[in-house]
Structure formats: structure tokens, C-alpha cells
Amino acid sequence: MASNKKYWKSVEELNENSSIVETLRNNEFVEEIPTDEFLGDKNKLSSSSTTRRDFLKYVGFSTAAATLAACEGPVVKSIPYVVQPEEIIPGIADYYATTIADGFDFVNVLVKTREGRPIKIENNKLANAYSGANARVNASVLSMYDSLRLKQPKVEGKDVSWDEVDLRVRASLKDAKEKGGNIVLFTNTMASPSTDKLIEEFVTEYPTAKHIVYDAVSSSAALDAYEKAYGTRGLADYDFGKADVIVSVGADFLGDWQGGGYDSAYAKGRVPKNGKMSKHIQLEANMSLSGANADVRLPLTVAEQRAALVKLYNVVVGGGASASSTSSDEAIAKAAQQLKAAGSKGVVVTGLDDVNAQLVVLAINEALQSEAFLPEQTKYVRKGDAKAVSQLIKDMNAGNVHTLIMSGVNPVYTLADSASFVEGLKNVKTSVSFSLKEDETALSATIAAAAPHYLESWGDVMIHKGHYSVMQPTIRPLFDTRQFQEAILLWTGNNTAYYDYLKEVGKGFAADLTWNQLVHDGFAIVGENTAVNASADFSGAVSELARTKKEEGFELVLYTKTGMGDGQQANNPWLQEFPDPISRVSWDNYLTISRVDAENLGVKNYHVANGGLNGSYVNIEVNGVKLEKVPALIQPGQAVGTVGLAFGYGRKAALKEEMQVGVNAYKLYNNFDNVQSVKIEKASGDHEFACVQLQNTLMSRGDILKDTTLEIFNTKDAKEWNIFPMVSYDHEEVRAASVDIWESFDRSVGHHFNLSIDLNACTGCGACVIACHAENNVPVVGKSEIRRSRDMHWLRIDRYYSSEDTFAEDVDKKVNAKGFVETRSAFLTLEHPADNPQVAFQPVMCQHCNHAPCETVCPVAATSHGRQGQNHMAYNRCVGTRYCANNCPYKVRRFNWFSYAKNSEFDYNMNDDLGRMVLNPDVVVRSRGVMEKCSLCIQMTQATILKAKNEGRAVKPNEFETACSAACSSGAMVFGDVNEKASDVTKLAESDRAYHLLEHIGTKPNVFYHVKVRNI
């Protein structure tokens, strides 16, 4: 029988109208627990003496108190269109073809926009497009939303209108014309036919004007050599897909060498087909992307590289120039013979800033009649003239420059002797700097002219001869900006809009295309290239090259990082947090040094308790210029006697404090030569690196990354070089993956997604990492959190070194070790990379296991499996137990420790309204306290399905894509539906080279890899 008795805690409850009773009834606690205030204040947490037990008591009053503070999502109010643009359909992405041409990167791209906002860069995949967007190009969309951009013009530091700028500049130009004063247009490489025509008209209007082109990272030596040989200032193009033997002498052609963009063609020859693949031999000082992908890599000083070029010339062309001996003479002689035997299927490239070295390479390729060497297809992506720049500085300091108009250059930061340039500016009556930001040069100039981002601009580009590209705006200018071209038109008295001017010029290049079709496609092929004949003193160049000697001391080799490039996007947090493919370090540049030289100098690298990497500082000096407290990183593969330092860091102006990292290597870039003689001494103190990879070698991870040689691949059965784990089942040895304790459902119905990753085609460039950032709203966490292994990258590219000379020798050492003592010793030595290791890259993301161990341990079913093969994450269900991360054998889950959006502790793009414009509305911005990881871009696969449904058709083969597969220009990543028999991924899944990570544990992933084959 139920009781009708009534109980109360106090007499106050007898008063039904009491406000106290109402409060007690509706609130578990009389006073609000300040959980959010406490947990959100880093200083309070760090200074608190509260024990772990007390802390748990504090936050454990109720599940509601803790989870409410951690998981409450922000409310964002929407503002509707007053008049909706016709071309914009809410929820549907629009794509526009355009071209990036920022003076360093030149690529045809597609820009994804949502509700009028550009949010992502993709490759233009039309036939003959000059595609291959690297990490910087993919990240360039975020640079448009930089809150520190120059928002309007300034004169002597004060905001002004464009009318005032026009009055001042016109007066200066008029004064210069009347007095015969020199006018200089000082720009980066624009390779723009319409701009060239504009400048010609400007010079006609102002006869004392001249145009000087300046590349921060110069290719002047290569340009001079090409001009001597072929009579035109440009660069030879290359198609590495047509080469059987590639010899590179100091040229990182998979990186930024001469504009880059070679990885797609290169990868075609690197995937073994019909038992054949190209052979790549790399001679270099710094370990580069190209060196890491080479079959044979010879670490040589720059002096030895010059000698090697002479030896190659003597064998291939025929000559008797004597060259000094090197540490790898035998290997060089072998490479020369292989090159000669390849004939027209061989090619040589060099990155040495030496006209003679460049001429020798042209001579070798001409002698080979190399099919991969395309001198007739002149590239215009580098046009800088180092001699003209040096003369300009002299003229400025002599008072011979009246008006200086700059665009796309930052010489105050990038010139080695920037002090002379700044001093010269004082003698220039009027100086104008067209710049996206109030950078070092804009601060020093009379007028800082706010320039638009390329996504806000019209333009055209001739990337190489016969290939005309158009640049179109994808959004109205965010600020009061003006293009350099628009200003030149006005200042020459031409009131034509630049768009109309461009349209007229474009008609001459459009061939059979209409203007609208040209803008739609983004480019046009203009005529055919005709053969060119070389005429230069090649034998004299060989003799000069043979006479060069190594200078005393260390050789400093200056280079560009794949992520940072020349540094113009230094305020881009995606690029700052992007781990360097080789060192796996972010948020820094550093002096790379060999183990031998490090030991001699007392330089050390070591890991601390939390897994972070620490290292020594050094002081370096070049021609009297000193850089102090430069972090030193011991780099396997660095040639003994050489060190490396990356450009693009050490900037201060117009950068957020978090992005003001590293040292300025341009200060050491004397005479635009990337090789300098340097003095090094160890300095006091230790530097904290933000390195995302603790282990270096592949030690005992042979079932994670499999590799073999081309000979074994061709002569032995697949089961010998692609070994699958076997188990005993019913007294028979069967493949481990065939034995299953799970009850599986039929996956042959509907879509079933797989991702194929070919380790032969993957160059480690990292474009996929940035594309994933952009598509999936991955937050930037900063150096301090990276140090704590709290990076949020959904996709990582593991880089492994061999401990012996090759990975095969590592395996032999491990297998042949006998007994406990010998085995222990072998494993300890296998933890340390060789001085010249083999290198392998492996992209790793959530493997989307069909039998996922994460799914079985989640207490709230936040992670579960979808019918289409994707491992799902329901963020609203996740309570952050992290059991799934502990149970994941691939370690691909990331716990979201903080609210990265609208948090001043993480002052990156998500902390301001402008930066948040880049966010993809199809993907939620995750709140703190949840687990996140790769989703195989489920929003993209569902959009493809819905598009096909709306059009009343089936999804086409190969129509499905993820952000990473779309960004991969080398074709290493292929995504698709394995239930569609005509799709590429289905065929790749049946390859003898295909395997899954850790197959023996029975997780049955939907991501599979292809065994790496080396041509050695």
C-alpha cells in the first residue's frame, strides 16, 4: 500500500508561495558552481594547490554540473539576405576557376565558395590545367581572412583616401617627368601579359621609368643561363614522367625548385607498371623532399656537387675537365653511366645558384636529347634580375631615384642588406608599396597602398609559354583596396577599368574560346611551342665550374620549407602549425646539422618527460652578419660539413605575436647565393621544439610500412614481398584476416567507401593535411599544445628513417639477432637513424575499421559504424572518456582539450570574426571535451549522393572524393566506392601491392596501402 505521508526539509516548504522553495525545487545547488570560470582560467588552474581527489570532488557534485560547463554549444544568430543573389543557393557550394600568382606560387585552382565566402582551394582538374596546389596554395584562402591585413591606404602612417593617394602620386610622377627624375616600378614576378602591356604604356607616358623584377628567393643564375643558351629570360620546363633516369644535383624539384609543380608527372613514373619504374638519384647537402623520395641519395657538400656535375658532363657529353674528388666518386660514376645509357630517357636538373652549373645541366640535357627536358616550353614563374636589384639599391642611395612604386615585394625584410635599402628609401621623394599587409616595407614607404588578395582580384598569368591563365575574383574586396594594375591605369590617365582592359588583352589569347568560357575554364592553350636551339659556351662553363673550390668552414645552404615558402604567408596559422615533412617540426625554423658535426660542436637534441623535443642553440656568422640563439636540429642525411636554414621566418611586422617565430635567414642571403661560408659556435640554453613525431625509425614496424626493391618485386611472388600474417585455423595455416569472431553484415549492398594510398606516389608534400584543415574546420592549437602532443590534425604524414643504410638491412639486423643480449642491443641501435638513411612517408588517418575496437568501448555509443563503411562520431553524445583513443591501435583520434573558437588563449583564425569566415558550414565546429578524427569527409560523400539523386542518375565511377584525395596532385590517394566495379579504388584494392595496417589484429580497415617499391 502506498504511503500518503509527506516529508519536508524545512518549515519554509510549508509556504507554497515562497521563492526559496521554488529555487530549491528547480536547482540542485543553491548557488551556481563556477566550474566554467575555474576550468577556463589557465592561471587559476596552474596556481591551484588542489589535489586530484579534491579536484574531482569539486567538479563531481553532479554529472550535469561538469558536462554542462564543458559541452554547452554557442548560439550563432544568422542574418538573412535582403536580396538574395541569383547564383547563390543556400547550402550549395559554388566553384570558380582562378589562378594564384603571388610571385612564388603559380597554379590553376578552383575556389569553393559557400554563400559568397571562399572557404577552400582545390585543384583545377580540367585537361591541360597547370594544377598541383601545394600546402601554401591550399592555405592561401585563410590569408585572405587575415585580421591584420591593410584595410585602407596610408600616407606616412595615417589613414587616407585613395583620392589623396592619387593626388600625391600623380604630383610626384609629374615632377619626375618634368625634372627627368627616375621612376622605378619594383615588382615581384607577375608573369602577366596585361600587366606587361600596362607597364609598357606607363613607360611611354613617363620615359624615365623602368621596371625591375625582384624574386625574394632568386633564380637569377638559372635565368641568366637560360637567356645565354636560348636568348629569352625564362626557365626550361620539365616532364619527369617521361624520364627513366633522373639525376638531381641540389634541386628539390618535389619542393619549391623553380616554382615546383613537378610531383604529378614525377609520380607517374614512380609507380611500377609492367615491371618498370623510373630511377631517381639525388645529390644534395640538406635532406629535402626530393632526396627523401630518391632511390639513391648521396649527401655531398656544394663543392662536391659542382665536381659531380663536371664528372657527369665528362661521361655524357665528353670532356676532359678535371674535377676534385668527392666522397662518392664511385656512386657518381655509376650514376653517370646510367644516365648515358638512358639516353633520351634521362634528365639532369640542378638547384645550384651558379650560372656555370646551370649551363652545364642545359648542355647535358641537350646532349641526351632528353624527352623530359622542355626548353621550348619556357616557364615565366621566375623573372627576377639580381644585378638590376643591386643596382637599384645603389641608385637609391645615390639619390638617383625620384619615385619608387613597389608591388608584391618586401625588400626591407627579404634583402640581405636591407639596411641599405631603408637608407636609400630616405633619398626617394615618393615611395609607394602595394601590399596586403602593413609589412616591413609598407612601414618604411611614404605610401602604404592596400592591395587586394588574389581571390579578390582580376588578372592574367602566362605560367609557361603557350599556357594563358585568367584570375577572377571570388568575393567582393573585404576592405578599401586597389589593385596595382588599376592604379597604373589611373596614373597614366587611362580611365578604363582594369577588367575591361584585361578582357581586351585576353581576347588575343583566348584562341577559339569566348571570354566567358575562358573565365569559366581558368586557362587557354595558346598555339604550339616550337623547338629552340641552344647556343652558349658550354665547354667554358665546365672549365669554370671545375675550378671552383670549397671555402673554409661550414657551408650554409639556405632553402625554403614546404610549408612556409618565402614567408609571405607567415601570419597564416595553418602553415605555422603544419609539420615540416622532413623534420616533423612546426612553429620554427632551425639550423639543420649532421650528427657528426653536432657531436664535434657539442650540440644535442633530446626528449623531455612529456615527449617534447629540446635542443641546443648556436650562434652563426656569415660575412660579419650574426644570428644569435638559432635552434640546432640534428638532421639525418645532412652532408657533413654543411648546415641548412630555412627562409620565411623571423618576421615581426603585421604578424600576431604567436606567429613571430624563428630567425630571419634572408640576412645571410648575400649576392642572392643560397650557399654561404658560415662560422658556428654553440650558445647557452636549450630550445623547445614543437615536434609531432617522437620516434624516428621504422624499428620493428615492418607490418606498418612495407617496402621492397624493384628486382624482388619483378622476380618473386607477391607473398614473399607483401607478407600477410597467418594463423592456425582447424589445423591449417590461413590468412589472419580470414578468421573472425565478429558477426559481419552484407556490405555489398549500397555504397562502401575505401581509400587507397600508394606509398610509391606519395611524396610527403602535405597538401592533404592543409586541405583537411580547410574542409573539416580543424583547429590550430599553437606551439605549447603541440609540445604536449595535443595537435588536432585529423591526418598526419608519418616519416620514417632507416637505422642501417636501408630498411631491408634493418629487417636483417632484427631477424638475425640471437639471444636476449644481442637482440636487446640490436633494438637499441635500431632506434637511431643512419647518417644517410632511406626515408619513407606514410599518410595515416582514421582507418575506418569494419571491426573497429573504438566502437566497442564507448560507453555512450558516440562512435559507431555506418552502413557505407565510415566510422562515425556523434559529437553531442561524446562525454570525453577517451576510451576509444586508448583502444585505437592506429592512434588517430584527437581529444579536443579546449574551446579553440573565440578563445584569446588560442588567438588564431577562430578567435576573430574575419578568420571564422573560412569555416565550412557543412562541418560543425567542435566544442571542448569531445573526441574527433577523420570522417572520410562524410559531408562530401553525402553531397555527392544528393547531387546525383537530384539529377536523377546514379553516382558516376570515381565521382566520390575526400579533401585529401582531391588535394593529392601525385595521385597517391584515391577514394571511392568499392562496390562500384568500374571505380579506380576497386581495381586498386585487388592489386598485389595492397595491404592493410596491422592486419593481424583483425580490424578490417577501409583504408589500404600499397607496398613501396624502390628502384635500387
UniProtKB/TrEMBL annotation:
InterPro entries: 4Fe4S_Fe-S-bd, TAT_var_transloc_signal_dom. Pfam families: Fer4_7. Residues 753-783, 837-868, 869-898 form the 4Fe-4S ferredoxin-type domain. Gene3D superfamilies: 2.40.40.20, 3.30.70.20, 3.40.50.740, Formate dehydrogenase/DMSO reductase. This is Quinol:cytochrome c oxidoreductase iron-sulfur protein. It comes from Myroides indicus.
